[in-house]
Specification:
single chain, mainly alpha, 3 helices, flat
């Protein structure tokens, strides 16, 4: 069975490229400012923003693999990478909801970025 290369979008490639660069910077700045002003919420949000960066990199790898190499199947592999992050975050949110004393998901805790 052979696949068909997905038609691409330059806009999609540009958005993922920008996101892949800006999200790690944004995560760093949130953590830095959060520490400076003593805001654990902002600091924790910085760690969660890094998870967003990981997802952007996964999507970008899929886009590049599809367009540059013609690997029609790489988009599905990249989607599975995104599923990992979605399931992980969902399970952490459920765990956090069950434990009101610990309101931060583990992705947001220092050292689990």
């Amino acid at each position: 069975m052979s696949g068909k290369v997905v038609e691409g979008s330059i806009i999609g490639l540009v958005v993922m490229g920008i996101s892949s660069v800006l999200m790690p910077y944004l995560a760093y700045q949130k953590r830095k400012i959060g520490k400076a002003i003593g805001s654990k919420a902002l600091e924790s949000d910085g760690f969660c923003s890094m998870v967003c960066a990981y997802m952007s990199w996964t999507v970008l790898a899929g886009i590049i693999g599809t367009f540059a190499l013609g690997w029609w199947w790489i988009d599905a592999v990249a989607a599975l990478g995104i599923v990992y992050f979605v399931v992980k975050e969902g399970l952490e949110a459920i765990e956090s909801a069950r434990s009101p004393m610990d309101s931060q998901c583990s992705c947001c805790k220092k050292g689990n970025s």
